[in-house]
Structure formats: C-alpha cells, structure tokens
Amino acid sequence: MSIFDSIGQQAINPQQALSQLRANPAAMLAQRGLNIPAGMNNPQQIVQHLVNSGQVPQSRLTQAMQMMQSMGRR
Fold it and tell me: Where are the domains of the chain?
C-alpha cells in the first residue's frame, strides 16, 4: 500500500517517491493530483498546507511518517 492509494493515484515505489520528493517536492505532489501553491518548496510548509487544506488526512500523514521512520529516515 502506498501513501497515495487513498487519493486514487497509482501506487509507486516508496524509494522512487522519496527520490522525487527530494528533487522537487511540489512538482512530484502536483503530478499526483495534489494542489500545491506556486512557489511553495519548503517541505514542512507543503505538508502543513496539504493537511490544512484537507487534501491529506492527518492519519495518512502519520502513517507516512511512521513508514519513513521504519526505513531509517527522520
């Protein structure tokens, strides 16, 4: 299961997603149908925007964070 399954997007490899997020977080998320304001490139701001706007539920964010921690990312 991917962090994107709940929003109807095709599941992708988590390592690939992480690499794309690091390279260009706003573009990678926009390609998956999430609305990111132009010029917003700070990962913390992007995450906060996605949760505040209801595009990503807090529970899904928590799951993604736990998955990243289990992979050795913090």
Answer: 5-70
